Amino acid sequence: MSHTAHIPSHRKPRRNASKTALRAGVAGGVLSTIAVAGAAGPAQAEPVTQTIEMPTITSGLSTAVAASAQATQQVAQDLQTQAQEDAAAATAAKTAKKAKAEAVRKAEAKKKAEAAAKAKAEAAERASRSTARTTLSATSGSHTGTAASTSSSSSSSSSSSSSSSNATGSAAAVIAFAQAQVGDAYVPGGTGPNSWDCSGLVQAAFRSVNIDLPRVSQSQSTAGTQVSLSNLQPGDILYWGGAGSAYHVGIYVGNGQFVGAQNSSTGVVQRPLSYDPPSGAVRVL
Question: What is the pLDDT of residues 235-258, one digit of tens each?
């Protein structure tokens, strides 16, 4: 018998392999947990740097840039169109203002021309009457050496000329009105009460008996019935020039005399027909 046969063995008994593996697994898990906890401890973690790739937007950006460029171009076109419209409006306003000024200038020129023509016509009328008076004066002078009977006849005619007419009714009223204005001033376009032109006086005289005559001598020369100068009656309208184109009118007051607003030199006068022989006459009364 061996001398060690009765000495107990100090070996640990063998463990089952599965138990051993289980224990090893548990130990490994514990160690892993400790290791992770240690890693999460006070020690500072290294910063993580990561590069992020952005998605490519080249196609979308190109579309946006193109749309923006188109919008900008449209705004520029709109501004240019507005500028053109404003310029056109300014040009039109300037043209209209110029046209208005030109129209005013032409109107003033026309008015001045008409005034000059009227003054010229009045001057011609006065010159014509002056010539007629000169002719009559020369004719009268050629008869100064006539017989005493002629002188007596002239004196008688003069005396009858200065006497009032024997008119009655409306004719007498017209004549009275006209004779009452003798001595008043002659003013072109005058209609009274203290200054007259020829047709203004005639119109006012007939208006005093409620007869309305046209304002101008041309129309007054055709306002009634044409009568012969050899068949005149008090109250007839005398005219100088043609019927419908007369340049002067007066009122026959009888006894071979008339009253008329002659010109600015004489004013309203009563004169014999020989002073300024008329061209014709019309009868209204």
Answer: 999 999 999 999 999 999 999 999
The DSSP result for 198-249, as a single string, is HHHHHHHHHHTTT----SSHHHHTTSSEEE-GGG--TTPEEEESSTTS-SEE
Those residues with Cβ within 8 angstroms of residue 133's Cβ, 6 or more apart along the chain or in another chain: 275, 276
Place of tokens 């007839």: 236
- HSE, side-chain direction, 13 A CA sphere, residue 243: 12
CATH of domain 161-283: 3.90.1720.10
Cis peptide before 193 (omega within 30 of 0): yes
Q: Across all residues in the chain, what is the average pLDDT?
A: 76
Q: Where are the domains of the chain?
A: 73-140, 161-283
Q: Hey, what's the torsion of the CAs at 109, 111, 113, 116, to 10 degrees?
A: -140
